From TrEMBL, chain A:
Taxonomic path: Bacteria, Pseudomonadati, Pseudomonadota, Alphaproteobacteria, Hyphomicrobiales
Pfam families: BPD_transp_2
Transmembrane helix keyword on record: yes
Protein name, entry field: Branched-chain amino acid ABC transporter permease
Species in which this protein is naturally found: Methylobacterium indicum
Keywords: Cell membrane, Membrane, Transmembrane, Transmembrane helix
Compartments in which it is found: Cell membrane
Main location per the UniProt record: membrane
Transmembrane segments: 33-51, 58-75, 81-101, 106-123, 155-176, 204-225, 245-267, 279-303
Transmembrane listed as a keyword: yes
Superkingdom of origin: Bacteria
Length: 310, 447
């Protein structure tokens, strides 16, 4: 798909989200969460380009969410908390990235998983600070000095999420078309060739890893500002699995895939939960199975193949 | 060519908006009428958050069954103030952000009149502020944490049962009464908020009422653990007089079975404040002579219920319908349903038969006293429910295939609940040992 039609598609999607959020008030919350998860999956997509699957990006999600929860006590300004949380996620991503990028495939995935579970245990064990599984309630937060609450609060967070999603999407789109993106694809096909060309695959992967940590950080901060309650479950491996699930559902072919996947995932989940309160997991599982069997390229793959057919 | 593909997508999405918008618009009018207090609603919709999946479904499913049973009973009797009630269940299994999203959906799309939330303390902590924000009366029906009303005040959230402090304190007082000379204790709790919190309450109160007890071991096996051999070996070696475990569900079942196999029950007295919910599953693997609680005065063989007929009808109907005796989440659900009925009737009466607004309904819950299957519960001015506590000792009887309780003490709610405006951690430090002397008489099992 050309850059122009992708941009149009993204803008149409943004408008659609705003219309939906206006028409169905309770979907505002669901769509904000979907955009946040889409952001985190965008980072997963970068790594997928290099053929690496991280089963531990929930670490950055939770790290940022807890940064917002703790930070809000000191500085209750969302526009400062958000970049601070993403920055911290990026710094931790750099430190962890320095050694996980030495590994590939299953080792890469499992190392990430292990580290996120370590963080999960820390949140559970440092009970006096984190209240363990009960989690922390966010204190009141402001945006530009005005309290972030009620309907305006919901719209503000949705707006921030949408702007971040568009900005990060555009950046990743540019990055993927740049030499860095090509080098990432090179890691997937044949890494030694990159070495011969004088490109360090580790450095390339590290850059992608840090970027993905920052995006997961933005996602975690938005989730914290939306649910206003953070629990260690955010860093549990199932959350990381959910992100990979969304990446597969949406398709790795385009930066729009993660957002399509996240929206489809969240909407399927809420509608399934509303219709079959005790069998919604089954519905979700069947949807993923159907996608894997009938549309290996994910939702994005379905759209593009139909275009080609037409 | 480009158009065809996009058209296909847009149509599908438009269908979704259409469906969503239509759903919302269909439901909104009835709801706003209720909000203005103008007309009687066609039905009273109640959103109920409970665990339908995951380990805590051992509580969530009996809770749902009880709700279904009692809602049917209410409807068969003509509803509440002439209006039928309908439950809408949502699953707490996926975690807090799912429940928060579902709460909004229940209020903004389903237009529920009341919400029962939740089993998980984290869900309650997240939902209580939402109730004030969305102005929808919310009954916290089962969660344990005492933090909710000690740290904050809400106008729309009320708890129709006790909290962790009385539930744990009652077990300690019982232990001090029946085994006053114990010298050492070990704890085996699940490693998560409840396991830590409950031990904190127990230890704080124990250090006040009986200073100098040696804590032999503090063991926190992972939540959902299936193998307790390490913990049991440790406790067997340390030989404490008492073993405390506030675990529940599969964890507690496994602990009881494994401790029973290795004869740990013969060496130490177990104190298990939640074990009433496991008795029917573990059966007589749990020997006689151990202390069991039920997070309230919940026991289908309660020795002195306020209305014996009511308790018998409740227990027998549940047993006939679901082939098990009701456990504490069933009683908690029954209390929430009873509070809802009493609250709506009070609000309607206060309006001289007119329908109350959400705010009027919420204020009806403040100070409300409503019957429970075993006694009655009063909601204090801070929103916390005052519920009696029952603790007993296990006994093997030929009449039941599982242990029953004997030497039961029913603790009056006021005597074990943190007073309004005080924090449990501080209040527990002001307790005096004469509390134990003033306890009510124990009541034996009557076959």
């Amino acid at each position: 798909m050309t850059r122009r039609s992708e941009t149009l598609f993204a803008l149409a999607g943004a408008v659609l989200i705003l219309v939906l959020a206006y028409a169905v008030p309770w979907l505002r919350f669901v769509l904000t969460i979907a955009l946040a998860k889409g952001l985190a999956v965008l980072g997963i997509l970068l790594l997928l380009r290099a053929g690496q699957v991280s089963f531990g990006h929930a670490l950055y999600l939770a790290l940022a969410a807890y940064t917002v929860a703790f930070g809000a006590v000191l500085v209750p300004e969302a526009l400062l908390l958000l970049p601070a949380a993403a920055l911290l996620a990026g710094i931790v991503g750099l430190l962890i990235g320095l050694f996980v990028v030495r590994y590939r495939e299953i080792f890469f995935g499992m190392l990430n998983l292990a580290l996120s579970m370590v963080f999960y245990s820390v949140l559970e064990k440092f009970y006096a600070l984190t209240h363990g599984a009960d989690g922390i309630r966010l204190p009141p937060v402001t945006v530009l000095g005005r309290p972030l609450a009620g309907e305006t609060g919901e719209w503000t967070v949705l707006g921030i999420a949408l702007v971040l999603a568009l900005a990060c999407g555009a950046l990743v789109r540019v990055a993927l078309a740049s030499p860095l993106g090509e080098a990432l694809a090179g890691i997937k096909t044949r890494e030694t060739r990159l070495d011969f060309m004088g490109v360090s695959p580790k450095r390339v992967l590290l850059a992608a890893y840090v970027a993905s940590a920052v995006m997961a950080g933005f996602a975690g901060a938005i989730i914290a500002l939306t649910t206003r309650h953070v629990t260690p479950a955010l860093s549990y491996w199932t959350t990381s699995g959910e992100l990979v699930f969304i990446a597969i559902l949406g398709g790795a072919g385009s930066v729009l895939g993660p957002f399509l996947g996240a929206a489809a995932y969240e909407l399927t989940r809420v509608y399934a939960a509303a219709t079959f309160a005790n069998a919604w997991q089954l519905v979700l599982g069947l949807v993923l199975l159907a996608v894997i069997v009938f549309a290996p390229g994910g939702i994005w793959g379905m759209i593009t193949s139909r275009r080609r057919a037409a | 060519m480009a158009g065809t593909g996009r058209d296909g997508v847009v149509t599908r999405r438009e269908a979704l908006i259409g469906a969503g918008a239509a759903g919302a618009s269909l439901l909104m009018p009835g709801r706003s009428a209720w909000a203005q207090g103008a007309a009687k609603p066609a039905e009273i919709k109640v959103g109920i958050a409970t665990y339908l999946s995951g380990p805590a479904s051992v509580f969530g499913v009996p809770g749902r069954q009880t709700a279904e049973m009692l809602f049917d009973e209410i409807n068969a009797a003509g509803g509440i103030a002439g209006v039928k009630v309908r439950p809408i269940f949502v699953d707490e299994g996926p975690g807090v952000d799912h429940v928060v999203g579902e709460y909004r959906r229940l209020v903004q799309s389903e237009g529920v009149h009341l919400i029962f939330a939740a089993i998980s303390s984290a869900d309650c902590i997240a939902c209580a502020p939402l109730s004030d924000e969305l102005k929808r009366p919310t009954l916290l029906w089962d969660c344990g944490t005492q933090r909710i009303f000690e740290d904050n005040r809400y106008s729309y959230a009320f708890r129709t049962q006790a909290n962790a402090t009385p539930e744990i304190l009652a077990a300690l007082l019982y232990l001090l009464k029946v085994k006053p000379d114990f010298k050492s204790i070990a704890v085996i709790n699940q490693d998560y908020a409840w396991g830590r919190d409950s031990w904190d309450i127990f230890r704080t109160a124990m250090n006040t009422l009986k200073p100098g007890v040696k804590v032999a071991a503090e063991l926190f096996p992972r939540f959902g653990a299936t193998d307790f051999s390490t913990e049991i070996t440790r406790v067997l070696a340390l030989r404490p007089d008492v073993v405390l475990s506030t675990s529940w569900g599969g964890d507690l079942d496994a602990l009881i079975r494994q401790a029973s196999d290795r004869k740990l029950f013969e060496r130490a007295t177990f104190v298990m404040p939640l074990a009433e919910s496991s008795l029917q599953r573990v059966g007589k693997a749990l020997p006689a002579g151990h202390i069991v609680g039920a997070r309230g005065d919940h026991w289908f063989l309660h020795p002195s219920p306020a209305d014996p007929e009511r308790l018998k009808r409740f227990s027998d109907t549940y047993k006939a319908k679901y082939n098990a005796w009701p456990i504490y989440p069933c009683f908690h659900m029954a209390q929430a349903v009873s509070a809802m009925k009493a609250g709506i009737e009070k609000a309607v009466a206060a309006k001289g038969g007119g329908w109350p607004t959400d705010a009027e309904l919420a204020s009806a819950f403040k100070g409300l006293e409503f019957p429970s299957p075993t006694a009655s519960v009063r909601i204090r001015e801070d929103g916390q429910g005052l519920e009696n506590q029952l603790i007993g000792t296990t006994l093997h009887s030929d009449k039941y295939p599982f242990p029953v309780l004997t030497d039961m003490i029913v603790f009056p709610a006021e005597s074990v609940t943190t007073p309004v405006g005080q924090k449990s951690a501080d209040w527990l430090k002001t307790l005096t040992p004469d509390m134990v002397a003033k306890l009510p008489q124990a009541q034996a099992f009557k076959s």
